[in-house]
Design goal:
The protein has no helices and 13 strands. The protein has a domain of about 55 residues. An eleven-stranded antiparallel β-sheet has the order 3-4-5-6-7-8-9-10-11-12-13, with no helix packed on it. Strands 1-2 form a two-stranded antiparallel sheet. About 5% of the residues are buried. It is mostly beta strands.
């Protein structure tokens, strides 16, 4: 359950009925464009670029993720401070992982009109099989 101001949630109740208050302020804060900038329940802070797209996500002043976009606003990649994350190129999504000074990319999935083809990998990193998830 939550308390709303227009289309913005300002306060929420956890399951079990316990309300969480954060030093007498709202649980969620927004900037002038309506973007959520603070989720006090999870101690998450979000920043946005000039196009109102998420730029960074931090928890307790520790950077969790940085988002990158193409000029048209299409999400290109999201990475953590260690350069692990996901890269999107057209319908293909790749998982990236850093080991030493090398960054590895693995095909994770392909979006199609009818759903998503997921590449499932064995522990040795080789593809085991693909599954198809309908939309």
């Amino acid at each position: 359950m939550g308390t709303f101001c227009g289309n913005k949630i300002t306060h929420s109740t956890q399951s079990g009925g316990n309300t969480i208050q954060t030093s007498g302020t709202d649980d969620y804060q927004y900037d002038g464009n309506g973007n959520m900038t603070l989720d006090a329940l999870r101690n998450i802070t979000l920043t946005y670029d000039i196009n109102n797209l998420v730029s960074t996500v931090s928890r307790n002043d520790t950077l969790l993720a940085t988002y990158h976009y193409l000029a048209d606003g299409t999400k290109y990649k999201v990475i953590d401070p260690d350069n692990n994350g996901r890269v999107y190129i057209g319908p293909f999504s790749y998982t990236t992982a850093k080991s030493g000074n090398t960054v590895y990319s693995y095909l994770e999935g392909i979006d199609t009109d009818g759903g998503r083809i997921m590449i499932v990998r064995k522990q040795n990193g080789n593809p085991a099989f693909s599954t198809y998830h309908l939309r």
